[in-house]
Amino acid sequence: MKRKDLFREGFKSVFQFTFTKADEISEAIKEVWQEETDQIPKKTPKSDPKQNVKKTKQKSKPTLVRKRKSKMFQTLSLPPGASKDFFSLCTGCNECIFACPYAVLFPVTATDSEKTYPHFDPNAKACHLCSDWPCITACPEDALLPYEVSETTPKFGKAKLLKEFCINEKTGESTCNACFVTCPIEKTVKFKGNLPVFAQSSCTGCGLCVETCPSFPKAIQIKLFKSE
Ligand code: SF4
Ligand code: SF4
Ligand code: SF4
């Protein structure tokens, strides 16, 4: 077996395990939700004039479930180069996931079907903005499109300093400049006094500064732009 195929098989078995666990977690959430909804008072008899009011309240429950689920996606970003029609063009083949040398991307099951879509979480694992974009190159559809020469980088979101957690704020000195050193985009991290400032116009939201920040909790958070 070729080395590439060996890696691919390895990835497949890891993701198969992830899918299985995700299904189990999903089932557990459904059970908890069912228990919660079972505790909601039952409908009154049809002849009761208050019946209509209660019906309306019960109808609003599924909407709440959808809102809770979609909130989870607000913390995740689509891969680099995601086209406007990403969700109709992506087949869920996972080729971009297999191609990423930093194992940044992972599949997320859609809320309304069994299909999976690649995502990443820049607050947990940063995109390295690879110069040759292996994820985009691997996409056999037009779901991920190459960047134009005029476009330099993707825009996943923007970095925000959580001042109280920054080591320099805690020490009152200029002890750390890890975010400045790590940022791959020139002139994006500057220092005002001893605290970093992130240029919103050029920050990509890649998350490399978050990953490198030695403080705990992290002193930087990526605020994602809405993708869906
Ligand atoms: S640009 Fe590189 S690190 Fe980022 S998702 Fe694509 S392959 Fe992975
Ligand atoms: S400031 Fe942070 S998130 Fe923004 S481009 Fe630089 S490393 Fe990436
Ligand atoms: S890497 Fe973190 S602790 Fe260091 S200066 Fe930047 S925000 Fe502060």
Describe this protein's structure.
The protein is of the alpha+beta class and 228 residues long. It has three domains: 1-42; 75-151, Alpha-Beta Plaits (2-Layer Sandwich); 157-224, Alpha-Beta Plaits (2-Layer Sandwich), CATH 3.30.70.20. Helix content is 38%, strand content 11%. It has helices at 3-38, 51-59, 61-73, 86-89, 95-99, 134-138, 167-171, 178-182, 208-212, and strands spanning 106-109, 116-119, 157-161, 189-192, 195-198, 220-224. A hairpin with a 2-residue loop joins strand 4 (189-192) and strand 5. The longest helix has 36 residues, at 3-38. One iron/sulfur cluster (SF4) binds next to helix 7 and helix 8. One iron/sulfur cluster binds at residues 159, 182-183, 185, 188-189, 198, 203-209, 222.
Keywords:
electron transport, 3 domains, 9 helices, two-stranded antiparallel sheet, Alpha-Beta Plaits, two-stranded antiparallel ribbon, 11% strand, binds iron/sulfur cluster, iron, alpha+beta, 4Fe-4S dicluster domain-containing protein, 228 residues
